[in-house]
Automatic annotation (TrEMBL):
Domain Peptidase M17 leucyl aminopeptidase N-terminal, residue spans: 23-139
Organism classification: unclassified sequences, metagenomes, ecological metagenomes
Gene3D superfamilies: Leucine Aminopeptidase, subunit E, domain 1
SUPFAM superfamilies the UniProt entry points to: Macro domain-like
Organism: marine metagenome
Name of the featured protein: Peptidase M17 leucyl aminopeptidase N-terminal domain-containing protein
GO molecular function, one term: metalloaminopeptidase activity
GO biological process: proteolysis
Length: 174
């Protein structure tokens, strides 16, 4: 069962978001996405320090966790900028959802990882988020609080394209 059912577009800044997890990306050439530089400054250049010491490479699927006041931040490696396509976007969405579940985050604020706001990329990101939140727990015996099913209540996509989000939601839930 997928545990994310509500995905919407937002134009609100990550600083105004009430989400538990803020997700931004970095490419293999170590350039960050649109909100990445702002978040890096907010985190006292922790990302830059990680790049400088060789710990952050921008490899596709690479995840780095940072903490701020009342929020967690996920720096997601996106791979080669020139090869970034809808499948890369879908994988980024899936990695984001899996990370959110592991960290028990109930809400996600994710940027659209590229400069274009179009239907296909928004659809792919939405599909990845929803499909990545899937957990098969039908025959799972709950032993303690750590075993409880985690629900991601919502995901907000910065500058997402609403028709693409609607299509992605329909496709992933069918």
């Amino acid at each position: 069962m997928a545990y994310l059912t509500y995905v919407k577009s937002t134009t609100a800044s990550w600083t105004k978001s009430s989400a538990n997890l803020v997700v931004f990306g970095i490419f293999k050439d170590q350039t960050m996405t649109s909100i990445g530089n702002e978040i890096n400054i907010h985190l006292n250049n922790a990302v830059t320090k990680g790049i400088d010491c060789g710990g952050i490479k921008g490899k596709e699927g690479e995840c780095h966790k940072f903490f701020g006041e009342n929020k967690r931040y996920l720096l997601l490696g996106l791979g080669d900028k020139e090869k970034f396509n809808t499948e890369s976007m879908r994988k980024a969405g899936g990695s984001t959802a899996k990370f959110a579940l592991k960290e028990k985050c109930q809400s996600i604020y994710v940027e659209s990882f590229h400069d274009k706001t179009d239907e296909t990329f928004s659809r792919a990101l939405t599909e990845g988020l929803i499909l990545g939140s899937y957990q098969f727990r039908d025959y799972f015996t709950q032993e303690d609080d750590d075993d409880k099913t985690v629900l991601i209540e919502r995901a907000d996509i910065l500058n997402g394209y609403a028709p693409g989000i609607t299509q992605g939601t329909s496709a992933a839930q069918s």
